Amino acid sequence: MRSRFKFSLSDMLKQHRRWEKTLFKAVKATRKVLVSAAPAKLPAAAAIKPRPAARLEEVKAFGSNPGHLRMLRYIPAGLPKKSPLVVVLHGCQQTAEDYDLGSGWSTLARERGFAVVYAEQKRSNNANLCFNWFRPSNVTRDRGEVMSIRQMVAKMAATHGIDRKRVFVTGLSAGGAMANAMLAAYPDIFCGGGVIAGLPYGAARDVHRALAAMKSAPERTAREWGDLVRAASPVIRDFPAVSIWHGTKDHTVSTSNADALLQQWLDVHGLESEAYVQNEVDGHLHRVWRDQSGRVAVELYLVDGMGHGTPLKPRPASRTKADTPGPFMLDAGISSSMHLATAWGLKKRPQLGALRQAAE
Q1: Rounded to an integer, what is the distance from CA 76 to the centroid of its chain?
Q2: E strands within the chain?
Q3: Each residue of 8-58: pLDDT tens digit?
Q4: Active site residue 173
Q5: What is the pLDDT of residue 296?
Q6: Phi-psi region for residue 106, left (φ > 0), alpha (ψ -120 to 50) or beta?
Q7: Which pLDDT value is given to residue 323?
Q8: Which of 99, 177, 186, 202 is the most buried (most CB within 10 A)?
Q9: Given this model, what pLDDT does residue 238 score?
């Protein structure tokens, strides 16, 4: 499949391959030295700091739950009815608490006035805690894991009166692929989504083809990618806006998947691949495609130099903690959570800011 980017992603990856192999060997050798030299016990002063108290609350009963997932939520104090909802899906080897600590979605929810719900995978479903985005039984509308996530949205609507017209979904890696599956299967529920280091809908149907797709997206035309989304739901309505994020040095999920995702959603929205506006955001390439009404329908962020993970921009120590680096949560100088929230119209509540200033 030929890339539609103005520069060659494959050439860029080849350019760094030899250097990274050398670096990997050097790091491996250094680790051996450090391990052999390490004391048997850490001194008390070097003890690991405890994790902050969990913000997420588990909801045990939310429907038939055919995907056997866990539901966790965060509801800011005093959240009014008709508030937006963001559904967040973690990556492999992560939990909902891990991803929330890194991405800061609950912090943003408290600051900007919206609800958050996390779907969490179980090891009984996937040993690596990956959402099963590659199994048709889990990404087909009203079946498996996608139905469980839809039921979580329904539970939040019934319990907290969320605004059904302002429901969004985002996720990383396997969670990104599953977020994309939610956008395809339920365009009547979601009005926008953020796919981070994810894969296009319909890229694989089993584990073997999933691993192959991660290395290189299947070769399909833009129309073929778009047809997979159009066939995913019988509901006829406007399709959600999609924000695609990918690191240029991601060697876990190839950047060819960002290109395939782009082709998929540009075709769904009937947009030409060359009809974009390009700029830089925090030093990273950003392209925007608008529909006839002027709404941003598709956007692409290529995060320069970033590997596999969610891009973060940690706040100063003096401010409320958000965007905390960790495994697959990478300090890239740009916050995907912050930019997604802003793009979705999730802005700070004026009354909340006034109350804080009065308290100070």
Answers
A1: 21
A2: 57-59, 70-74, 85-89, 115-120, 167-172, 192-196, 241-247, 277-281, 284-290, 296-303, 310-312, 329-331
A3: 445 544 544 543 454 345 434 434 433 333 333 333 333 334 445 568 999
A4: yes
A5: 98
A6: alpha
A7: 81
A8: 177
A9: 87
What are the residue boundaries of the structural domains of the chain, listed by start?
58-355
Torsion angle (degrees, nearest 10) of CA 290, 291, 297, 301: -20
> Catalytic residue among 173, 256, 336, 337, which?
173
Pairing, β 277-281 against β 284-290: antiparallel
**CA–CA separation, 256 and 20 (whole Å):** 19
- What is the pLDDT at residue 235? 83
Q: By the 8 A CB rule, do 287 and 29 touch? A: no
Phi-psi region at 144: left, alpha or beta (left = phi > 0; alpha = psi -120 to 50)? left
Distance, CA of 310 to CA of 104 (rounded, Å): 11
Domain 58-355 has CATH 3.40.50.1820: yes
Per the structure block, which two tokens stand in for 265? 């959603």
What is the model's pLDDT at position 322?
74
pLDDT score recorded for residue 350: 62
Rg (CA), the chain: 21
pLDDT of residue 19: 39
Of the candidates 118, 100, 95, 88, the one whose C-alpha atom is nearest the C-alpha of residue 52 is 100
Enter the pTM of the model. 0.83
CA 187 to chain centre: 17
Q: Which residues of the chain have pLDDT under 70?
A: 1-54, 317-321, 349-360
